[in-house]
From TrEMBL:
One of its GO terms (biological process) is antibiotic biosynthetic process. In the C-terminal section; belongs to the class-I pyridoxal-phosphate-dependent aminotransferase family. The keyword Transmembrane does not apply. InterPro entries: Aminotransferase_I/II_large, HTH_trans_reg/aminotransferase, PyrdxlP-dep_Trfase, PyrdxlP-dep_Trfase_major, PyrdxlP-dep_Trfase_small, Tscrpt_reg_HTH_GntR, WH-like_DNA-bd_sf, WH_DNA-bd_sf. This is DNA-binding transcriptional MocR family regulator. SUPFAM superfamilies: PLP-dependent transferases (SSF53383), Winged helix' DNA-binding domain (SSF46785). Residues 22-90 form the HTH gntR-type domain. The keyword Cytoplasm does not apply. Keywords: Antibiotic biosynthesis, DNA-binding, Pyridoxal phosphate, Transcription, Transcription regulation. The lineage of its organism: Bacteria, Bacillati, Actinomycetota, Actinomycetes, Pseudonocardiales. Signal peptide: none annotated. GO terms for molecular function: DNA binding; DNA-binding transcription factor activity; pyridoxal phosphate binding.
Length: 493
């Protein structure tokens, strides 16, 4: 099957193709040629029609025609009678699949690899490290280093001190946990990879929220799992459709983000958590809950916050909880963990040992001093996010008054609905105005959120203001001229 007949998929692959000097048609030709050389576009693969790709990229059809003509002259593309435009069979690609550019999360990871450059990138919602990291690091150097250096340093399951601290953290939350139920990982991303390797086999299926986060979905796709989407409402995953999906597909995992869902910011209610737990237990499916944003509440908590979803499961039902210090403390620390049944943790640990023999010990010692302080660190980070959320909402209401969103319960971004048109098309115009956005199609493969954007508010206030100004100029251009695929407009070069 040709993967890129859908123009939006090809646009995601190309990323920031408009950067640099020169006419647009030549920059597009260079980006397509590079994708073919890297192996992201395969020999014989069919590309979208000129009209379709022009619409998605928000350029004139003449721009795409010029790029395709240029590539046919370079013998990168060829036109086959009755078969459209394809990558030339003579192209010698690198022996790879094109790296991270091939996945739906590719634009996010590629930005981390390339660096931000002059763009304001909204691909990654990350903040600077908490100031308490400096104090904790000084304590580690002063008090812990002799014992750490006396140790061989290989702990595939995690530094015992940190495993104990994480277990105590969950016990305080109302989910009794022992150190043997905890595996320390290099961030939550690795935690999800290890769990997927343990649970998913050929023809496995995973029920996921729709929308969800593309990097997480790509982990399940990488092991060829079938993704079964279930929509959300204001309390979390919709239980009537969830019940139908569990009954019809008998999945290996139910993957949910109950605490400040990414990208919507929804907090799953306690009532909804109980119902989800009941359904999972009834159908014998393991719950994989991802609580990366735990503690980042954007409204004052009224009463007691819901317990982790695992705490609502009846005896005998199985749950895996993944979390990290990335949002509450610092993404650069790269400390995450898996909490689950001891036998599952051991199986994950064996795979962790094969991957890296264990996460860095000094980082874990630092985390062991920070985990007991999460009850104070997360609210402090949330207070900063709360003010930036208010600023972003005020700016959007002022400069983009027809955009709509639900104010999130927590997390670090707004999930914004455009009043019309495709967010993929708008994302291309936004790039040319200096902002990189994540369109809804990356987070929801059903098409139900193709007019949505994820807009983080983790940036400094001055950058947030500049970003909204650029988005407003891009939106004005789109509203004034529309997608440039079906009318004789002057080519943009």
């Amino acid at each position: 099957m040709d993967r890129f007949q859908d123009g939006s998929a090809l646009a995601t692959l190309l990323g920031d193709w408009t950067a640099g000097p020169g006419p647009l048609y030549r920059k597009l030709a260079d980006a397509l040629a590079r994708a073919a050389e890297e192996g992201a576009l395969r020999s014989g693969e069919r590309l979208p029609s000129e009209r379709e790709l022009a619409g998605v990229l928000a350029v004139s059809r003449a721009t795409v025609v010029g790029a395709y003509d240029e590539l046919r002259a370079r013998e990168v593309l060829e036109r086959r009678q009755g078969s459209g435009t394809r990558v030339n069979g003579k192209v010698r690609s690198a022996r790879s699949d094109g790296g991270v550019r091939g996945g739906r999360a590719g634009v996010i990871f590629q930005r981390l690899i390339d660096g931000p450059g002059p763009l304001i990138s909204l691909a990654c919602a990350a903040e600077q490290g908490a100031p308490e990291v400096t104090e904790a690091l000084a304590d580690v150097v002063r008090e812990d280093m002799p014992d750490l250096l006396a140790d061989p340093g290989y702990h595939p399951s995690g530094l015992p001190l940190l495993r104990a601290a994480i277990a105590e953290h969950y016990t305080r939350l109302g989910l009794p946990t022992g150190p043997e139920q905890v595996l320390v990982t290099t961030g939550a991303q690795q935690a999800l990879v290890l769990v997927a390797e343990v649970y998913l086999r050929t023809a496995s299926s995973v029920v996921v929220e729709s929308p969800s986060w593309p990097a997480c979905l790509d982990i399940f796709r990488s092991v060829n799992a079938e993704l079964v989407p279930v929509p959300l409402d204001d309390e979390g995953i919709e239980t009537r459709e969830l019940a139908a999906a569990l009954a019809a597909h008998h999945p290996s995992l139910l993957y949910v983000m109950p605490t400040y869902h990414n990208p919507t910011g929804i907090q799953m209610s306690a009532t909804r958590r109980r119902r989800v737990a009941e359904l999972a237990a009834r159908h014998g499916v393991t719950v994989l809950e991802d609580n990366a944003y735990a503690g980042i509440a954007l409204e004052e908590e009224r009463g007691t916050a819901p317990l982790p979803l695992a705490a609502y499961l009846p005896s005998g039902a199985e749950a895996i909880t993944v979390a990290s210090l990335g949002k509450a403390v610092w993404g650069g620390l790269r400390i995450g963990w898996v909490r689950g049944p001891a036998e599952i943790i051991e199986r994950c640990a064996r795979r962790k040992a094969l991957a890296d023999l264990g996460s860095p010990v000094i980082d874990q010692a630092l985390a062991a001093r920070l985990v007991p302080r999460l009850d104070e660190l997360a609210p402090a980070r949330a207070a900063i996010q709360r003010e930036r959320r208010k600023l972003l909402e005020r700016l959007l209401r002022e400069y983009l008054p027809d955009w709509r969103w639900r104010s999130p319960d927590g997390g670090s971004s707004l999930w914004v609905a455009l009043p019309e048109g495709s967010a993929d098309v708008f994302a291309q115009l936004a790039l040319r105005h200096g902002v990189e956005v994540v369109p809804g199609s990356s987070a929801d493969f059903t098409g139900a959120h193709d007019n949505y954007l994820r807009i983080p508010f983790t940036l400094e206030p001055a950058v947030l203001s500049e970003m909204v100004g650029r988005l407003a100029r891009a939106w004005t251009e789109l509203r004034r001229h529309g997608p440039r695929d079906n009318r004789p407009l002057r080519p943009i070069i």
